Amino acid sequence: MLRLPFKIALNGATLAIGLVAVFSLALIILVWTSIQAPAPKVPELKPELSAVLKPAPQPVMDRAALIRMAAIAASAEGAGTAAPDQSAMIGRSFSITVRFDCAAPALSWSRDVGQKRIKLSARLQNWSASDLVKGLAPAQFDQVEGFWLTRPWILTDDCRLAPLQVQAAASAVDRLTVPPAPTEGQKAGDKATDVAPRPASALPPQVQTLGLASFFSPGASRVPQRDGKPYEAVLKLTPELEAATGANLKMTLTGRIGQATPGRPVVCRASQPDRRPLCLIAVEIDALAFAVDGVDKPLAEWRVQ
Question: Which end of the chain is more exposed for a tag (fewer CB within 10 A), N or C?
């Protein structure tokens, strides 16, 4: 067996002990350094500002919302008080659907069975020369046009078309409350017998009181202006259009609330204290479309803006 000299063996042991000491010291330094070193920064998860600051989208205004907005302005006008602050409504989106039978004669249709065609038409009103528009001075407008919102006491898009059975009841009330005119040979104040009821008088024509109007100021783009030209479409008869009536033919208007004068989306004028004020809602129409129940796609559509 080979024996190393004691000196070499001792030197080897010393070397081993030294190496162990060095490695131990290095390990201690490494551990100490890791303890003293600052912990790595974890990136903070910040919420996106857009998600925090962006307000929730406002619902699209429908027919009921438009009528309520106009009713508030009409109430102030009728009471003689200051116009309400409705400036927050400016820029709101709206969408309404009007059935042809609910808005005649502005909405009209005709069908030619021989030619297998149907014609749909929407005719705008021109309010440029109306007293209401003229009373908005010093504002001036090249053109003010739009559609009547007929039957503004109905909040839904549908309307009743069947005649109401009220004539007989009205005649009965007249017989009870209105003294009949004396007949020939009968003195005033004598008791009348077997007097036939007077025929019911015809109802006066409906007076429109609420309109959706586009106000075009001088220098405004003439692209969306119609200048009296109606929206018209001549279409080929399909099975749906062949069976269509004015009750299921409809026009849809979409757009945004505008302003007739700065900060006022609704303007009203009362001609008499006992009459409902005439009001116009300022709108910027984006699109107009004709449609029929049972068909998803529009029959005709115009992008106005």
Answer: N
Q: Where are the domains of the chain?
A: 1-31, 57-155+206-303
**pLDDT by residue (tens digit) across 156-169?**
988 877 665 655 44
Query: What's the CA gap between 171 and 103, in Å, rounded?
Result: 29
Q: How many CA atoms lie within 13 A of 103 on its CB side?
A: 31
Dump pLDDT digits (tens) for 7-27: 544 555 565 666 656 566 666
Q: Return the number of other C-beta atoms located less than 10 Å from residue 145's C-beta.
A: 22
In angstroms, rounded to a whole number, what is the distance separating the alpha carbons of residues 142 and 36? 79
Q: Which residues pair with 235 in a beta bridge?
A: 118
Instruction: Indicate the residue type of 220.
Output: A
Q: Give the span between the Cα atoms of 149 and 89, in whole angstroms.
A: 18
- Count how many residues are written for the chain: 305
The pLDDT tens digits for 203-215 are: 556 789 999 999 9
- In DSSP terms, 108 is beta-bridged to 121
